[in-house]
Structures are given as C-alpha cells and as structure tokens.
Task: inverse folding
C-alpha cells in the first residue's frame, strides 16, 4: 500500500545527495528501476509538487545555506550548484526569496527555505512491516542532568495542542515554518540541535511549542507570525535514549522516554519541577543524537 511512499522517499534522498551534480530524471529513474514518466507521476501524486519544482527549490535553498554559512564567492556557489552563470542564480534566488544573494548574505534575514520532504515515516514502515516494531531493541532510558543558560526562544506556542502531530494539524504550515527556521539555524544556542519542540504551561493547561533557542544577545530578525520569549537559566533532568533506527524504532523509543519523563519523581534526585516560567524541550534526531525529553527543575528547599 505504501510502496510509492518509500520509493518517493528514495527519490528525495537521491536528489539531496546529488544536488551539486545537477541530477537528471533519467539518472534517478535508472537507479530506481522505473520509467522517468512513472517516477514523475508518482512523485507529484505523493508530494503534491512536481519533481522539477522540488529539485529547483532544494537547490536554491542549499545555495542560501552556502551564502549564509561560508565565504565562498557567489560565482563559485552558482557553479557548485549547476547554474550557468551568477546572473542565472541571482534571478532564481530573487524569484524564490524576494531578495538578491548579495543582500541576503549581508543581512541573513529569515527566508523560507525548502526543507527535505518526508513522505515515508515510521507509521508507513509499521504498516509495511508489522513485525519490525520490536521493543527489545529499545535500550534503557538514561536519566542525567544538564544546565541550559538563559536564552531566547523564537517560534510558536499553541495552547490548543499538546503534541507534534496535532500542532501541525492546527493551521500551522510545516513547510513554511520549518523552512523559515532552517534559514536561522546558524543563530541557534550553542550545543543545541536547531529546530526544537516541547511543551509549555499556561493557567494549568499544557500546550505545545516549536521553534529555535538562540543566545540572549541574539539581535536577528523575528519572522513574521512568530514571537520570542526569554527563558531563565535552569537545571534540566534529561530523559535520553541513544541513536536508533528511525523507521523501525521511533515509536517504542519515544514511548519509553516519555513514559519515564512524565512519571518520574524528581525528589529522588533532590529536585522539584520548575516549569512555571520555563518550558520542557524535545530533542529528536534519531540517527545522530537519539531522543530526549528535558524538564526544568530547581533544588528542593531544605
């Protein structure tokens, strides 16, 4: 049933791996064993956009990241990503982001990048391979302490949702928000993983948040529609599972971590929860970092 979700994900992966080499439809279709026509038809059916448009947006988004993060000459970046000239790349950049490469490099104003599309998830994998959701691969959840300095958090807070899936289903455009935050990733608080989700509390209710943590001295622009809040420094109890196979083990890993996080008694470590002016965080980077829930605490009064 989900064969083409998996195949389109392979197309997406192949495009990302070959953006600097001007990938052709014929080359990709040969790698997958399907005709070019069938590949383009199924790509559009599954993602809602043409393969050509997806490649174009991913390439120009990668150009923006090169301009933001390196000192490469604009001409060299154009050549690196297959443009016939600097002028051709400039026209594409202005069309995509409404600003020239030179202006963007100087200002680093938030723009909406096209992030890598995901159409084959652990949900699809579990439907395909019902016997692969094996809890025996889940390692014991680690409990440790981490200090996070005072910082700003830029993003969105939604008191009407308390989980990732419902957040994106509540009139928040995932592509727009994730793409804009991706363009700001160089501003992220040292040691953090970039785009971050979590929970906050308001008048006894629990809501969901999504954005990026940045240093207190960050003076960059706040994207339209987003806010920033000052988060005090704090000790956090971290409930952590090391890197794992995303498709096979995401659900059981997240379940194990969150079950411990929401039922843990911090008094066993000499702390109490301290979430009134702070917020809980998720770190979710399965193959690179793993999964963690971070909850702020303060020392128990003697």
Result:
């Amino acid at each position: 049933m989900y064969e083409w979700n998996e195949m389109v994900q392979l197309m997406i992966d192949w495009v990302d791996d070959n953006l600097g080499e001007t990938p052709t439809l014929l080359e990709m279709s040969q790698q997958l064993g399907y005709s070019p026509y069938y590949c383009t038809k199924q790509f559009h059916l599954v993602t809602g956009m043409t393969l050509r448009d997806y490649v174009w947006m991913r390439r120009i988004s990668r150009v923006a990241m090169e301009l933001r993060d390196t000192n490469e000459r604009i001409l060299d970046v154009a050549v690196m990503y297959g443009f016939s000239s600097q002028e051709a790349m400039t026209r594409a950049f202005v069309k995509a982001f409404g600003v020239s490469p030179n202006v963007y490099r100087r200002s680093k104003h938030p723009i909406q990048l096209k992030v890598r599309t995901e159409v084959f998830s652990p949900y699809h994998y579990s439907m395909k391979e019902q016997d692969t959701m094996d809890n025996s691969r889940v390692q014991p959840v680690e409990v440790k302490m981490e200090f996070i300095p005072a910082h700003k958090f830029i993003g969105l807070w939604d008191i009407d949702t308390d989980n990732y899936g419902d957040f994106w289903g509540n009139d928040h455009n995932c592509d727009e928000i994730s793409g804009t935050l991706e363009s700001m990733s160089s501003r992220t608080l040292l040691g953090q993983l970039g785009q971050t989700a979590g929970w906050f509390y308001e008048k006894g209710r629990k809501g969901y948040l999504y954005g990026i943590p940045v240093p207190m001295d960050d003076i960059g622009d706040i994207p339209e529609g987003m806010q920033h809040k000052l988060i005090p420094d704090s000790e956090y109890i971290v409930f952590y599972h090391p890197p794992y196979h995303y498709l096979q083990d995401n659900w059981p890993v997240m379940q194990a971590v969150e079950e411990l996080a929401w039922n843990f008694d911090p008094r066993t470590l000499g702390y109490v929860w301290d979430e009134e002016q702070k917020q809980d965080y998720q770190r979710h980077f399965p193959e690179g970092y793993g999964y963690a829930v971070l909850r702020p605490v303060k020392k128990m009064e003697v």
Observations:
- The chain has a mean pLDDT of 87.
- The chain is about 40% helix and 20% strand.
- Residues 3-107 form a domain with the Arc Repressor Mutant, subunit A fold (CATH 1.10.10.60).
- The chain has two domains: 3-107, 138-299.
